[in-house]
């Protein structure tokens, strides 16, 4: 019988207490990984780690991804607990939607900081550790909003487009160290946040999807698994759209 795809590997995932991040953690554990969950809410992330099987499989660490010291501590927790860092998933994010006319400078700065600076912190700090071991996989979560631009999301679209450019530039810098960096652009994914949309907005988005349905968090997790594993061993600097065909 073949080994699980992530046998004996350690993954760090930000924004992992719920939603897409938690689904990725579940999938990685199913495939043999030990997982360090990072999230801004200390209590929630620790409970999430307990649900995933506790210290043998997962630990939860409070982390503000905009704080480089917090990111250092998150990665050090992986090294201290599991003695390795093989996979980094930069998933943490927030939304502060508003039209450009009404958006405040603070709302713009918050979204850029969490998504773009947070991904930069996670990418550069994980890569610094991985280069010593001459291998590693980094997966960054962008969004379809970063490809097409969505009304009310000048901050979010800018940040998510920036993650694509960051991932490609960083991938070129570290490829010769055996580190691969790829990005995922989810479309409309069924989460508590998206299901709270007004029905009219939800139906409008659904009408744009050729496959006729929203995606599930498990479907993003499966693509993250592919990019984190040796199945994608000759891929770096790529962006995979997981959208049901929306905005092809």
UniProtKB/TrEMBL annotation:
What the entry lists under InterPro entries is as follows: KR_dom (IPR057326), NAD(P)-bd_dom_sf (IPR036291), Sc_DH/Rdtase_CS (IPR020904), SDR_fam (IPR002347)
The enzyme's first-digit EC class, named in words, is oxidoreductase
UniProt lineage: Bacteria, Bacillati, Actinomycetota, Actinomycetes, Mycobacteriales
Assigned protein family: Belongs to the short-chain dehydrogenases/reductases (SDR) family.
Enumerate the spans annotated as Ketoreductase domain. 9-187
Q: Which gene encodes it?
A: fabG
Q: Where are the transmembrane segments?
A: none
Tell me which Gene3D superfamilies the record gives.
NAD(P)-binding Rossmann-like Domain
Select a single GO molecular function from the record's annotations and give it. Answer: 3-oxoacyl-[acyl-carrier-protein] reductase (NADPH) activity
Q: Which species is this record about?
A: Nocardia africana
Q: Does the keyword Nucleus apply?
A: no
Q: Does the keyword Repeat apply?
A: no
Q: What is this protein called in UniProt?
A: 3-oxoacyl-ACP reductase FabG
Q: Which PANTHER family match?
A: 3-OXOACYL-[ACYL-CARRIER-PROTEIN] REDUCTASE, CHLOROPLASTIC, SHORT-CHAIN DEHYDROGENASES/REDUCTASES FAMILY MEMBER
Q: Which UniProt keywords apply?
A: Oxidoreductase
User: EC number(s) in its UniProt entry?
Assistant: 1.1.1.100
């Amino acid at each position: 019988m073949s080994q699980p795809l992530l046998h004996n590997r350690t993954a760090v995932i930000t924004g992992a207490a719920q939603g897409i991040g938690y689904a990725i953690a579940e999938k990685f554990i199913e495939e043999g990984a030990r997982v360090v969950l990072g999230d801004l809410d200390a209590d929630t992330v620790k409970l999430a780690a307990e649900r995933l099987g506790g210290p043998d499989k997962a630990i939860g660490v409070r982390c503000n991804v905009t704080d480089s010291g917090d990111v250092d501590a998150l990665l050090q927790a992986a090294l201290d607990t599991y003695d390795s860092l093989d996979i980094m998933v930069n998933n943490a994010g927030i939304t502060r939607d508003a039209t450009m006319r009404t958006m405040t400078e603070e709302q713009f700065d918050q979204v850029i900081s969490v998504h773009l600076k947070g991904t930069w912190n996670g990418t550069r700090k994980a890569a610094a550790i991985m280069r010593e071991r001459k291998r590693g996989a980094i997966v960054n979560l962008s969004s379809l909003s970063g490809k097409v631009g969505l009304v009310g999301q000048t901050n979010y679209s800018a940040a998510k487009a920036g993650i694509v450019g960051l991932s490609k530039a960083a991938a070129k810098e570290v490829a010769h160290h055996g580190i691969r960096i790829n990005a995922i652009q989810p479309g409309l994914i069924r989460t508590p946040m998206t299901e709270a949309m007004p029905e009219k907005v939800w139906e409008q988005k659904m009408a744009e999807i050729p496959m006729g349905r929203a995606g599930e968090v498990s479907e993003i997790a499966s693509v993250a698994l592919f990019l984190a594993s040796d199945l994608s061993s000759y891929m770096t600097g790529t962006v995979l759209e997981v959208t049901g065909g929306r905005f092809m």
